[in-house]
């Protein structure tokens, strides 16, 4: 199997894992404060990441790599989890998942700015078309009905795209799983302290669903998913593999309906299937 194909497979696995993040976050915020949830998931994943780095005796990043790791940490360890947790207090996970369709465009833009990638014009057309379908759906549903939630989701997409691109670029030299582990370790002192300070007065009344949500976003969303995702971006190309995020709403909507009992409208399905159709075209013209 060539490197690019391996990258697409790794990216696909990472995307499937990420598709459960927003439904899991939605379940978790029903029992935990968003700030505690953000800190706890990063702290748990950071402790696991630190153990992996020590046990496998990985080299320490250079000074320049530490700057990039800080960008990754701010984007995907702190920014995206906190902003989405806050947004999910105002919108359903099914509604917020559609905004994930904007991630490929955000990631591709930062792939150009940070990694020097140069997709063909037709690639931008396909990526923009997929994003436009997502925006059109959001407008149809009535963004004004939850302006705070939608604004938080849009901001989350921007910081996440930067974190994805920076992590994908750095993974070419440092390694995919090493990047997310070092980023988590870099944020660990702050996030662990914050988790302790914002912990609930009592854990007795927290439902099992909230605990399961916390476990998923800590282990899979914050650690394992990124191991596959950054490897995919590094091997298959940031802009190209990033288009797989267009598929994430499809998997996420199914999970939201199956696990949370949320209503998935026909318009949601049509919008999601529309952006899925853009992935093949974007992949074809990525290089």
TrEMBL record:
Bilayer topology: Multi-pass membrane protein
Keywords of this entry: Membrane, Transmembrane, Transmembrane helix
Family under the similarity heading: Belongs to the EamA transporter family.
Protein known as: Drug/metabolite transporter (DMT)-like permease
Annotated ranges, domain EamA: 7-130, 149-277
First-listed, main subcellular location of the protein, grouped into a coarse class: membrane
Superkingdom: Bacteria
Gene Ontology cellular component list: membrane
TM annotation in the entry: 7-29, 35-55, 67-88, 94-115, 122-139, 145-165, 177-197, 203-230, 237-260, 266-286
Compartments (UniProt record): Membrane
Keyword Phosphoprotein: no
Keyword presence, Nucleotide-binding: no
